[in-house]
Amino acid sequence: MGTIDPITLAIMAASAVEAKGAQSKAASSARRQQEIQNQQLKIQRDAEERKRKAALKKDLAASRARFGSSGVGSTGGSADAVLEGLTKKYNDNEVDLAAMDNLSWQSANESRNASLLSQDSAAFQSNLSLLKKVAPLIGTK
Question: Which of 20, 50, 105, 134 has the most C-beta neighbours closer than 10 Å?
Answer without folding.
Answer: 134
